[in-house]
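subagent[fold] <- orchestrator: predict structure for attached chain, return tokens only, no commentary.
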Amino acid sequence: MIRNPKWPRYWPTHVVVGLATLGNIGKLKAPGTWGSAAGVLLYFLLFYLTSNFVGAILIVASCYFAIGICGEAEKRLKKVDPGEIVLDEVVAIPICFLGLKPYIAAGHGLVVIAAVFIAFRLFDILKPFGIKKLQRYYGGFGVVADDVVAGVATCFVVNVAMRFWLGF
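subagent[fold] -> orchestrator:
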């Protein structure tokens, strides 16, 4: 069994739940969509200007952080993978942009953002290719894993689409 990290147990509830829900974003209608939009913002504020190596380290670190926070928030909210927890979408979105910096730099940023956003939301909502089975895992890993795999699927689909469409 995959266990939640122990470190979030010692954090105050308002901090854990506030981080997992991004404050009031988790209370909005369609919280996963708003969380995904926050993930796009995070990508451009933190990931876009970094090297691929630093970006990969940030992705792994943010996923570990999200597993801890989301797992503890589940316990404190007494719900399994509730919709108001959106940190999982936020940390998965930067994965979607792997390999797409050249298209953004070449002036196709809006197309890339739209493609990533739409594809990720479709994979996150529909959960095809066994993605839904990942939610069965216990705690924070189950909350975050399906979004990470949806991010990987989005990355693959959008990279292939951009190469065919724009021919880089």
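orchestrator: received. Logging for downstream: The radius of gyration is 16 Å. Residues 7-166 form one domain.
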